[in-house]
Design a protein that fits this description.
By secondary structure, this protein is α/β, with parallel strands linked by helices. The chain has 14 helices and nine strands. Strands 1, 2, 3, 4, 5, 6, 7, 8 and 9 form a nine-stranded mixed β-sheet that branches. β1, α2 and β2 form a beta-alpha-beta unit. α2 runs antiparallel to α11. The termini are far apart. The N terminus is likely disordered.
């Protein structure tokens, strides 16, 4: 009788909660972190909000999705550690930082590899991208896909970059990533690795001459205030890894894992479309903010000068995977 009474009470409680529009169990906190601003134009922020919406639609009541922009959970290195230890659930992480965990991700950062966004999507959503993401499973993380960071461009206070020799002697902030350091070195620049959180102040104070980031990040983080020249070099396609902690993901039953993956895929698709739509408007916005904007005259000249970077990193990336990517972009 006691067992029946307890069951009846539990059933009644659940019914009352349901009638009141409340979930029978408390939602699990899902912490989503990234390092840039929470701006309507910022590609990291767009991805975070899309993911939150898609998860709430596909897994209603399952998660209380909490978002943490602006280095609130540390820099990207610290966030990767949090994903490994399970203290962070989802990270939107710049590809170059992920490459410090496994050199296969250096493939995405090869300078002048992709001609346009569609070409990058084809490679990253296909066999090559899946092979890269699979490398994270041995590090306590699940790679669910690549969002759109946009092509990276050079901004600086020294001169417009129209040809390779315009980079010579210019002190550019780079991520702590050997591909980016190698690229600027091969162009004759002075690469200066620096944490993102320190970069704006360094540009403002003249500690660096410039940096290289996507259009949306330039605008969202107020770089027209501290840099003059924007050169549309499109030197590297910025892929944003969407990574979930294995500890978080492993707790979900198979059907919820599938829903989580589906939510991420749709969020990425929507995010890419939003970032693309904003790009042309962003160039005009940055001009209006006072930046001098130029295209590069001969992309082939830049590509020729950075070929030593390909030779240097092909072995670490894996020749077979590297060749698959080259075949995809050339075919």
């Amino acid at each position: 009788m006691m067992t029946l009474r307890k069951t009846a009470i539990a059933t009644l409680s659940a019914a009352l909660l349901s009638a009141a529009g409340l979930p029978a169990t408390a939602a699990e906190t899902l912490r989503v972190g990234w390092t840039t601003s929470d701006s309507a134009q910022d590609p990291y922020a767009i991805m975070a909000h899309n993911l939150k919406a898609e998860l709430e639609e596909r897994l209603p009541g399952k998660f209380d999705v909490q978002i943490f922009p602006n280095n609130q959970l540390g820099d990207e290195k610290q966030m990767l550690e949090g994903l490994q230890y399970g203290t962070l659930d989802v990270g939107i992480i710049t590809n170059a930082t992920i490459a410090n965990l496994d050199p296969v991700f250096q493939l995405n950062d090869m300078p002048f590899l992709f001609a346009d966004e569609a070409q990058a999507h084809g490679v990253l959503d296909g066999e090559v991208g899946q092979e890269m993401l699979s490398k994270l499973s041995s590090k306590g993380m699940i790679g669910l896909g690549f969002a759109e960071g946009g092509f990276r461009h050079m901004i600086n206070n020294t001169r417009p970059v129209t040809a390779p020799n315009d980079v010579e002697g210019v002190k550019f902030r780079t991520m702590q990533n050997p591909v980016f350091i190698g690229m600027f070195s091969s162009l004759g620049g002075n690469p200066t690795p620096m944490a993102w959180s320190e970069t704006f102040t360094a540009a403002q104070q003249g500690t660096i001459d410039g940096l290289e980031i996507p259009l949306a990040v330039i605008a969202a983080n107020n770089y027209p205030e501290v840099t003059k020249y924007l050169s549309l070099t499109k030197h590297t396609y910025s892929a944003l890894g969407i990574i979930v902690s294995e500890r978080t993901f492993g707790k979900l039953p198979e059907e919820e894992q599938a829903a989580f993956k589906a939510a991420t895929s749709v969020a990425i698709e929507k995010q890419r479309a939003q970032v693309a739509e904003a790009s042309a408007a962003l160039v005009e916005q940055l001009k209006a903010a006072g930046m001098t904007v130029n295209d590069i005259e001969d992309p082939a000249a830049f590509r020729k000068q950075v070929l030593p970077v390909y030779d240097e990193f092909k072995g670490a990336i894996g020749e077979e995977l590297f060749d698959k990517a080259l075949a995809a972009v050339q075919g």
